[in-house]
Design goal:
5 helices; alpha+beta; 6-stranded antiparallel beta sheet
């Protein structure tokens, strides 16, 4: 069943009429989170979930309850996962599954201990999305940087990251 759901969501993403507006609904976000959980099982285990997805914008969360370290704060690996996955989600959904994301490097700075759930926000400008599309028409790959800002439930910054991604055509 897992492969059937994964295949159906991937086919839906690859359709030329992918309704990104539909991803704003609870059922649309459920589909996105199901896809992410199937594609990256650790994302499901750590409780990663997309809570908002627009063209070029993503907001996602991980709960502290599943990700405590030996100090009772959020495990650094969970914060890394929270910061890294959005680059792939944006590539897959902004470009309708035509391209696959490849993480080349990720720099993360841990600023403060997170004692609550953590939210990440990432954004690619319309100009960047257009530039990536143009690069893909000229070549078989395109590169971009995505800045991540992670905050706890009080709005305090707990980490920042920059992912260096490459896109290639999906096969």
């Amino acid at each position: 069943m897992q492969h059937s759901v994964y295949g159906g969501i991937k086919q839906w993403m690859a359709s030329e009429t992918l309704p990104l507006s539909g991803l704003r609904s609870a059922s649309g976000l459920l589909a996105v989170n199901t896809f992410v959980g199937l594609a990256i099982p650790f994302a499901r285990r750590c409780g990663f979930r997309v809570v908002e997805l627009e063209r070029g914008y993503i907001r996602a969360q991980v709960p502290v309850r599943r990700n405590r370290n030996h100090l009772g704060t959020m495990y650094a690996g969970a914060l890394f996962t929270l910061a890294e996955i959005p680059g792939g989600v944006l590539v897959l959904f902004d470009f309708g599954g035509r391209f696959v994301p490849i993480l080349e490097r990720f720099d993360i700075t841990y600023i403060a201990a997170a004692k609550s759930d953590v939210t990440v926000e990432c954004q690619l400008s319309p100009e960047t999305l257009n530039s990536l599309e143009a690069q893909m028409r000229q070549s078989d790959r395109a590169s971009f940087e995505l800045v991540s800002t992670m905050t706890d439930s009080t709005g305090r910054r707990v980490a920042e990251g920059t992912g260096y991604y490459q896109m290639r055509y999906s096969r």
